[in-house]
Amino acid sequence: MVRRAFILIPAFCIHLCVILYSLYIEYKFLYLCQLFGSLSNTLFYIHWFCAISALCLHSFLLFLDPGYTEKNTATEKDVPDHLVHKERIRFCDKCNSLKTPRIHHCSTCARCVWRMDHHCVWLARCVGHRNQKYFIHLLFYQLCCAYMDIVVVSGAVLFGGTVPECQERLPFDGYGTRIFNVCFSYAMCIGFIAFLSNLFLIQLYCAAYDTTYVEIMKGRKSSNKSTTMDNLRMVCGPLPLLWVIPCTAPQQVESVRPAELFSA
């Protein structure tokens, strides 16, 4: 617990600082300078919504169970040999519990996780079946903030000199400060967009094709013959209209017990 707190507190503080700087850029050029005219206030409030949503989702994910299975529910003797040979059932000697092929043990969390995708350093927690949807939303809102920042900074570079409000309302903004803000904003946005876009596309692919990053790395292919829409419903919830907002949870994951596995 102490080790997890040692990781997640700095990670959350870094995320908070990035969001605050992003809000500062938007406030400076959209709200104060009205860089894009009548659209400026609308874009500012959209960015504010995305930024607050990202922070709330980050906080929520820190405490959400990713799909842990219960410990100490079985012994190695509970596993019939014929199921072991078929690789339908495995035994985790660290958790003392049974595992199906879609359950993986995370050495960092010291727990078995249903449909474990990866262990996220920023959350100090695994991404699994129960929190994957919210993790995708977190990436989406962060990407929205990053793309809006780079558009606003580009607009300030190209059109800032022709907007009277930028000169009238920001007399304290010297040449050196402008250069620093532009360079730092570009570097931060491009870095975040490159990293988050890659992770976001991987998560969408895994959700659409009912696989995980762990299974991709191990070369395992899902035996699920469901359609892409069915796979997305399993992760994001039954109603597609609600996929864009984090309000519907995926199907609950029950603990894996011997009787349930042997009857399958």
From TrEMBL:
All copies of domain Palmitoyltransferase DHHC, residue ranges: 86-218
Any one of the GO CC terms: membrane
Catalytic activity: L-cysteinyl-[protein] + hexadecanoyl-CoA = S-hexadecanoyl-L-cysteinyl-[protein] + CoA
BP term (GO), one: protein targeting to membrane
Topology of the protein relative to the lipid bilayer: Multi-pass membrane protein
EC number: 2.3.1.225
Membrane-crossing residue ranges in chain numbering: 7-25, 45-64, 138-159, 179-201
Family: Belongs to the DHHC palmitoyltransferase family.
Protein name, UniProt field: Palmitoyltransferase
